[in-house]
Here is the input.
Amino acid sequence: MIIGKFYNGIEVHRSEKIIVVKFLTPHRVISTCRAGGGLRDDLDLIFNHQSCEPTGHTRKVHVQAVHDPAAYLQTICLQNGLSENCASLGTAANMNCATIKAETFRDLEVVTICTGGVETNAGRAGDPASLYEMGGKFESTGIEAKEPCGTINIILCINKELTQGAMVRSVMMATEAKTVALQDLNVNSCYSDGLATGTGTDQIAVASRLTSEIPLTGAGKHTKLGELIGRTVKMAVAGALELQNGMTPLSRKSVLKHIERFDADAKAVQEGMSIFLSREQAVLLTDNFNCIDSDPITVAAAAALVHLRDKFIQRILPESCLAEIFTAYGAHLAAAVSGKYDRFILYKNRLPSEKIRLEKSAFLEFIYCCMAMGFEEKWEIKFQ
Here is the structure.
């Protein structure tokens, strides 16, 4: 069925496991399609196809997509009655979770169609890679790889003709906008302790309508085209992640979401805090952890410490100030949990400054210590 028609130039169709963007007029396309990708002026359509479930599921067509992309393209086109003269994107994301966003300015129109999932494959540019390609084949680099499930696929359509250079610039702009969407959601890398900039299998196709007008030459941040690309891609990526992963700004209101990139999970946080608590208090924490984890003031204090660690790692802050800064902000975290800000100086003085380090395990232990210190006094009543 048709789920969208834009600028009398494209129709967006969706059926069982595929979204197809059909060109009603000729378009120039640049894509990451492994079969027939690159820069093309002769394509009939772009499709985005779901080849399997997001985790623990490998179908023959998925294996074909990885190892024989030309045959995969032919198979999907044959099954769906499509022209093989096309660009193809593949994913495990649900096509019903696709998001379409369109923006206009005067006679310029930009349309973005996006599917996405990031919970198991989000990565940061420069993270250690697990594959090396040589002689047409991929081999392991010796780094243990997780199952690469999670992809952001972007189809970007523009109703104006672009120069070849502007087409490349539009890919840059869309990529930056995708990263902005991930930053806004505080998405963590699954492969390092940094914030994600995308996934390891992201794909993109950009189409600009061929016209008799003078082509647009700019698609950067200073141009209206660049602005519309940025806006539509950012909104479409965010919308797709909300539908696919339930990922919203509110869902990120969690201490755990801010520290999970250091290999923490709910069990580890509770066990780490319990070391500093009595048995009775540890049981109380376990039964009420979600309330502590999602408390806005506590999340803010924990997020501040995570942000400060990033600044030390990036050498923006000198490590000689580590103990002084961390004990101050750690005391804020303890006070946020207890609600007793009159105890701030006491908390600051009690924190073991000599054990504060930037390594992941040491940093997590410091977080647990601060939170436990506050939880220990959360219900303490002082009688006069």
Remarks:
- DSSP finds eleven helices and 15 strands in the chain.
